From TrEMBL:
NAD found in the keyword field: no
Organism for this UniProt entry: Halorubrum cibi
Secretion signal, residue range per the UniProt entry: none
Keywords: ATP-binding, Cell projection, Cilium, Flagellum, Nucleotide-binding
SMART domains: AAA
Domain AAA+ ATPase: 28-203
Protein name per its UniProtKB record: Flagellar protein FlaH
GO molecular function: ATP binding
Amino acid sequence: MPRTDNLLSLGLGERDRLNKELGGGIPRGSIVLVEGDYGAGKSAMSQRFSYGLVEEGASVTLMSTELTVRGFIDQMHSLEYDMVKPLLNEELLFLHADFDSGGAFSDDDGERKELLKRLMNADAMWRSDVIFLDTFDAIFRNDPTFEALVRKNEERQAALEIISFFREIISQGKIVVLTVDPSAVDDDAIGPFRSIADVFLQLEMIEVGNDIRRQINVKRFAGMGEQVGDTIGFSVRSGTGIVIESRSVA
């Protein structure tokens, strides 16, 4: 029998089959990479994961580079994932990384600060059982230190420093989930994260006639519970959330 005591359940068994399709949950002490182009469903998947985890009693931090708190609540509401109570009960910590207007990530004179260093020092966000960075590539694209290393073709060195921090976090049994748009970053920058991810999910959109179908390609799933399928078809529906499609996406 596969072990399930080390898995954090994604819940919502009555609503969708996502937890079952992913073998009963995400292993504790994992780095999870969710990769997909714009519109592939990365944020919706992060929101579904977050909601299910909180429903199952896990504490969650979700940092978004795109949504404000209001936008997050509205989007969750449209997917029928009601996050108001978890936010008020501090079971979910939502953080908005506001790069465009500078905000908390710039000095008074508008100079950008070292984002990754500041994130690593933000103790409160790493206290949760599961930490989502959505989208992670926007964070390191906006970090001047990372950019400088990229200009010197030292992307791997920059990535390894971040990875060593993540390894420290997951050694405490926590899960770090990174969503990445591969079209927005160089392969050399993202390669090390693909290599070290314990769970690597690739979201894909496929045109079938006039229909757009989405699927999760499971590239790696270390420490899985029940058998995890290689390909999981899904859709994102207003008023319903993530729906696992039984049809195969060819």
